[in-house]
């Protein structure tokens, strides 16, 4: 079976859109979700029989379950799931409200869990399937002041992917967590990025500096969304896909730095740490 059926969240823009368009050009079937159907109308391939646009509220389990059911009804199965939807919440941890933190986790963590929970029965019945969870390099190397909420949500997504992979391995299902570096999408735009609603005076200088940095970086990120999409297509085509997939030179460099730092801490504190056993 060469042609696959893909279920992609957040497919109206960025990496999700690049992935959907490349797959449709290859003759694969794509169920694409967005908050509104209007957001998906600009996809040039939208009239293809292989394209199923879906309006989904990812915060709602019922909405997610309905979308998965419509995909099965239309295409008969789902082979690859891509949890791509998400947004960046920035602001020092002290400045973020409980509501802001929970909203960020609702989309970045609990929405993928809604998808996983309702798609797994179908994949388990098929005894095959592949789930991609798109995290970020900050979900592996998280030392970024002002990004605590986003970092924490992406670490959570990476951790649950590792656990998921262990749970479904015997069922013929695989899982991959994707760690992109900065990608040239609309991620740093107002639609994909939220600032803390209140910033105390002690943090205002740092916040202004961060705002300036983001404005300068927007549209100049090193990562190519088309190439990232192709990387995922390649990973989905092999018999033993990676559990951890890093994208871009920056992501690889930061990952190596993190691994080196952890190795140094392990070595330096090995004796004292091991001595805590009975």
From TrEMBL:
Source organism superkingdom: Bacteria
Keywords of the record: Oxidoreductase
Gene3D superfamilies for the chain: NAD(P)-binding Rossmann-like Domain
Alphabetized Pfam families for the sequence: adh_short
Molecular function in Gene Ontology: oxidoreductase activity
Positions of the Ketoreductase domain: 4-186
InterPro entries registered for this protein in UniProt: KR_dom (IPR057326), NAD(P)-bd_dom_sf (IPR036291), Sc_DH/Rdtase_CS (IPR020904), SDR_fam (IPR002347), SDR_oxidoreductase (IPR051911)
Record-linked CDD domains: 17beta-HSD-like_SDR_c
Family stated for the protein in its record: Belongs to the short-chain dehydrogenases/reductases (SDR) family.
Protein name: SDR family oxidoreductase
Source species of the chain: Kosakonia oryzae
